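Appendix B. Raw example, untouched.
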Amino acid sequence: MAGAQDLFDPIVMADDRFRGEGYQEGYEEGSSLGITEGRQHGTLHGAKIGSEIGCYQGFAFAWRCLLNSCATEKDSRKMKVLESLIGMIQKFPYDDPTHATLHEDLDRIRGKFKQLCSLLNVQPDFKISAEGSGLSF
């Protein structure tokens, strides 16, 4: 009887074997797709952040030129905030997406940008959408 039981073991154990093989194949395919999807997601969000930071930087450089050309005594606070924003943008960790304070730094830059817009009496409308990003006034 022991020989007959050994004969049927592959049939009885087929369910476990197929489940294990299916799990392994699914895990490998899922890992591959997860890496691809994660890379696409990271690229999209990295591009959005880069576009936003670039817009802030262009805005700041343009206003620095405008304020330098006709600087008055009351513009000193504006220049101080403007230079602070430019410094924050230059220190931003562009090439390290795992930087511990990346999101906090981005929030500080956004806050400084809003402060500068308030001082300059400018109402920006920064939008990021599928067709691109932009800053309108």
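End of appendix B.
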